[in-house]
Write a structure and sequence with these properties.
Elements lengths: L5 H6 L9 H14 L12 H31 L4 H35 L1 H10 L7 H10 L9 H7 L4 E6 L3 E7 L5 H17 L1 H12 L4 H22 L6 H5 L1
Antiparallel strand pairs: 1-2
Helix pairs in contact: 3-4, 3-6, 4-5, 5-6, 7-10, 8-9, 8-10, 9-10
Amino acid sequence: MHIGNAAHIKWSFGITRGKNDKIDSIRLCKYACKESDTLKVSSALNPVLMQLKDFMTSRTRLLSQINSNKQYIKELKNINDPMVQKAVEKAHLAAIEGIAGSIKEIEALISKIIAENPELKNNYDLLITVPGIGHLTAVYLICCTTNFSAKISGKQLACYAGVVPFEHSSGISIKGRNRVHHMANKELKKLFHLSALSVIQYYPEFRTYYNRKKEEGKHPMSILNAIRNKIALRVVAVVSHQKPYVSNQLIAA
């Protein structure tokens, strides 16, 4: 069995018209024959890892429901009568507290899975040594990389997260600035962004880099993207070498 990128497979068909199960099966068969020399057999799906992914997805959905309820209450606050607003908030409070309790239960199950699986625990312990990588980011990285079983490079992970800028130019007519591609894992990109904001505040190595680039005239978002890229490279490095992260400044000292 080969598990591939759906977008890559779809675009390989070229200009197509019509779609049904019969046509799709023929197209997939032709794709498999044409690419047979480059396709690699995917490893068997780890049932424990699939459980972890399901729990992480459930947590994200529940968190979205809490934020939706809070936003709804906040919007009504500007137009509602105080008495009505109080009743609305009371009605939603039980739901918010119930969802929050469910999130805590799921987080406990996630921690239990990590603790009971040596392979997951090993990579998890390595990941949280990287500056800016916390508990949830480490678990999400394990899920979306299948515990780094595909031996991806740092550049591949950064590209997947949408933090690698690509050139946008053609001849003399198009001279666009380098920019990241819109097709990326938006959730991972958001987590890397939060990590970047954290490291420039709490880690001198990254804070010094941020201030230096800002003095050079770089745009703040461009600098943050470079830091997100650095974090992605460090994430893959610690897992590939099976060694915890050590700050360059500490080595120099």
